[in-house]
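Notes to self after the Tuesday call (sharing in case useful).
The group wants a holo model before anyone commits to mutagenesis around the pocket. I volunteered. Ligand is glutamic acid. Logging inputs and output together so the record is complete.
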Amino acid sequence: MSNLNEREARRAWFEATCVDLHERFGPLQDGEPASYIPELAAVDPDRFAIAAMTTDGEGIAVGDVDQPFTIQSISKLLLYGLALETHGRDTVLERVGVAPTGEPFNAIVLDDEANRAPNPMVNAGAIAITDLVVGADVEERIETVRSMYEGYLGRKPEIDRDVWASERDTGNRNRAIAYLMLSRGIIDDRVEETLDLYFGQCSVLVTTRDLAVIAATISNHGVHPITGEQVVPARVTRDMLTVALTCGMYDYAGEWAFSVGIPAKSGVGGGILGMLPGVGGVATFSPRLDEIGNSVRGLRVFEELSREFEMHMFDPDRPWRRGT
Ligand code: GLU
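Result:
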């Protein structure tokens, strides 16, 4: 069989497997949608989507792939990339480290020794990273964020204004984290504005198809698989992938790295974005979450795909290497 036929066959196998997993895990009712704000509690818990894109731009889409939902913590990964690109590694590392915490994502914990937030995937780190978003006021700064998304998506995404308002109304724990960082000189004194922006970037609306494109772009060392544009520098994607692998799945990051082995980021909106460097991206959406905050069906889909296709990044036999 020629290489081309083999690739076609593998794509068909992958697609058939995604269809099968969507059917198999569709009836799974475990977990609950996030309920800390009414807007998230009100989403249809039965929505379920799986999408993938290779670094060559070939896509697979199964289920509710065009259903918008709030990106929530997945945005932390993209803002980290933006901060690294805009300010450079040294400035970013001064404020935010790269060590997993073993604490919940919203813990009021800093790296006291280095006087910085522990890592960019927990709220403290993400707020410190949000502080670095450039612009004169919150509207200008949210445009900076939307423009960053435009590179990946070809459009500026909408923000769910109701979610944004609710996040703002209920976000006192994040306020506590931010003011603690202000008192330590880790962030600037425009704290309320930065918090507002942080809540806004949690409320960006994306679809599962969008997440697959974003994941494929990062996996392709920052080059958009369809437009060919360098959306984010390759050296920055290396750092994004590293923190995604070590800190991307809340307190489950260690187990995830061990069993699934794909750099990934999850959000309480129900999305998971997984990246296989040099190969492609996979995204899932299903709002029911486990107690850690990860999508129940999403976890199952990634576990099965990783096992079936030997996608673990350290698997010596994985058949997904570029050019095979
Ligand atoms: N909006 C949430 C918060 O800041 C973050 C959600 C998430 O972890 O996905 O508390």
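Two things stood out.
The mean pLDDT is 95.
Residues 3-25 form the longest helix (23 residues).
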